Structure formats: structure tokens, C-alpha cells
Amino acid sequence: MELRKEPALPQPFADHFSTLAPAYAAARPSYPRALFAYLASVAPARRRAWDSGTGSGQAALGLAEFFNDVTATDASAEQLAEASAHRHVTYRVAAAEASGILSGSMDLVTAAQALHWFDVAAFYEEATRTLVPGGVLAVWCYGLQRVGEERMDRLLASFYHERVGPYWSPERRLVETGYRTLPFPFDELVAPEFEMVHEWTLGELLAYIRTWSATAGFVLSEGYDPVEPLGAELAPLWGQALDVRRQVRWPLTLRLGRSARPLSPAGAP
């Protein structure tokens, strides 16, 4: 897949995932179809959408079912190289704060599990610039998963908060608060609740945990994989058969609002 590149990124970006790009693409959970159907229903049209900080394109592919043309940007060429091609999606290396997208051209702008890595004020300005009048910005995130069994959820929470906790970037706090502490200078809409649900083996869950930026930071600092002992603790509780599947859940926190960008005197965006 050929990637389009902007001339240069405006500033260094928080690159936590380029070295994890293949694992990230393979192991990260996908978002529910109902989320994208809802976003399409509140956008003023289904012509064009921009997915910023797309990573390996999980959200972009979901949008492509409902929008004619999806532009998916990320500052990491390595992550974009792992994205799946789709006839409605154009992948491009660009910062979220300087997308190179035509002003007033997007019905919907999204940032999926990515806003906390951006210069938030600059991204809001860029989203406002690219949206049509009445266009919608939607940002969402997810935190710690649950498998619905108390002992395993305690082990997973301990790993998250204690074992790799010191290696989370400060921005992670924004995810844990569901972006609710951030300003949101849009006409905010009341969003329904969504969650991701996957039937995973223990191996799939552990592969996902290895894509956490804090896990990568732990490995870099301590020199060993902390997920191996976690897996040994979880295995007797999960089920001895390697193909046992359990339901893994992540509640999504969604904020969305309409642009107040006015029409020009000629009536064009």
C-alpha cells in the first residue's frame, strides 16, 4: 500500500507505537459497528470523514462502511504501513494538528484512542477548520478491560496499576477520566453508550496487553517481558485448554459535538 506524505511533520510527536506497529495492528480490539452507524446518523452527510491518529486504521475501516471517502492520517508511517487497504480509505502520513486537508471539506472528524497524544488545542482548531458547517467531531477512548471473573480482573488491574503503572505516560490520565477533564469547544451532543466486546483466548488477551505503551516502557527499562508471569497467573483461572475463549469488554467513552463554523457570505464553507 502506497502512503501519501505531507512535506514534514510540524513538531516531534509522542511516538509510542511505531516499534509495536505489527503487533498493534494484529492485537488491538476493533470498535463496534453500531458506533460508526451512530456517527453517520449525526453527521450532516456521509460524503467525507477524517480519522486522525488512525494508527493501523481500526476506526478508518469502520467509517468506510458508512462514508464515501475516508481520509486516515497518522504521524507514524510504520503504523500506517500495517493498515489494511480499502477502496474508500486514503491513508496519509500527517500530524493531527496539521492534516493538509481542505478547509470545510469533512462531514465528520474522529480521533479514536488518540486525542491524549495530540496538542489538544491545536487539534481542535484543525478539526474546526476542516469540518463543514454543522460537521461533527467525535473523540473516544477506552481504559482497562474486564473479563467478568473477579480474581482475573483483580490480577489484570494489579498489572495495569502496579506492575506497569509507573511506565504509563502522564497523558494516560486523560483516558482514565474519559476525556471529561478536557475542554470541548463544540456544541456537545449527548452520546449513547457503546462498548467493545470480543471473544478472546488468553493468548489474544496477552498479545493485546503487550501492545500497551506502558508494557513496552517496562520491557525497555527492566529488560524482560512482564506479561509472561501475568499469563502464568491467569492460566489456571482462564482454563487449561489453549482455545478457551472468554468475553473481554471495554466500555467506550465518547464525546462529540457540532462545529459552530459559520457559512461564508457566499454560502460556501
Detailed description of the structure:
There is one protein chain. The model is unreliable at 1-11 and 263-269 (pLDDT under 50). Helix 8 runs antiparallel to helix 10. Strands 1, 2, 3, 4, 5, 6, 7, 8 and 9 form a nine-stranded mixed β-sheet that branches. Helix 5 (120-130) links the parallel strand 5 and strand 6 (131-142). With 269 residues, this protein is of the alpha/beta class. The chain contains ten helices and nine strands.
- Overall, the morphology is elongated
Query: On the 0-100 scale, what is the average pLDDT?
Result: 89
Compute the separation of the termini in Å. Answer: 32 Å
Total beta strands: 9
Q: What count of helical segments does DSSP give? A: 10
| Helix amount | 25-40%
Sequence stretches where pLDDT stays below 50 over 5 or more residues: 1-11, 263-269
Q: Beta-strand level of the residues, as a percent range?
A: 15-25%
Global structural class: alpha/beta
Query: Secondary-structure element sequence?
Result: EHHEHEHEEHEHHEEHHHE
Cα Rg: 19 Å
Largest sheet: 9 strands, mixed
